[in-house]
Amino acid sequence: MRVLVVYCHPVPESFCASLRDAAVATLTGRGDEVRLVDLYAEGFDPVMRPEERRRYNDGPPADPALTPYVEQLKWAEAVLFVYPTWWYGLPAMLKGFFDRVWATGVVFDLAPQGGIVSRIPHIRRIGVVTTCGANRFLSILMGQPGRKTILRGIRALCGLRTRTMYLAHYDMDRSTPESRAAFLGRVNRKLKRF
Predict the structure, then answer these.
(1) Within 10 Å of residue 7's Cβ, how many Cβ atoms?
(2) 22, 59, 95, 101: which is deepest, by most CB within 10 A?
(3) CATH of residue 155
(4) What's the total number of domains in the chain?
(5) DSSP label at 119?
(6) Which residues, listed in sequence order, are joined to residue 89 by a DSSP beta bridge?
(7) Beta carbons within 10 angstroms of residue 181's beta carbon
(8) Which structural domain, as residue segments, surrounds residue 17?
């Protein structure tokens, strides 16, 4: 399977970096072709400018800096997002990636009668590996907006039978070396079946 790993964390030595490395190693180890997008390291610009927004419904983004990301989406059969959950949602960088790259003419078209038509039915798996500072109960109480954005909103742009996976290390603010090691093991086991 062709798996695009989209990684979003500004700190190179973060636990999320360990999760990214484990994910890439596990997927590669099972024979998948893996490509990595590291939004911070690549200097991705998440800011949508006024003219870009004005043209949003007219077709694919015109910014040539977005072309490599668009090509990666066309290539992928699965997308795995690795990021920290901040304020119960996605980091601004990742949200900007969705705003600018997962765009009209790239991942969907606007149907004349209303609604959208997918341009990426070839993406059959969507996965999330994340950390949450809050515990599981509080995260659920707050509605898990980041989880819903990807597993409902982003997934709806893919094929009808696209399967999802969500793995979260909750209570990260009080994590221990043991809890982090256990979560890395869980990520490894789950990704072997992704």
Answers:
(1) 24
(2) 101
(3) 3.40.50.360
(4) 1
(5) S
(6) 86
(7) 11
(8) 2-191
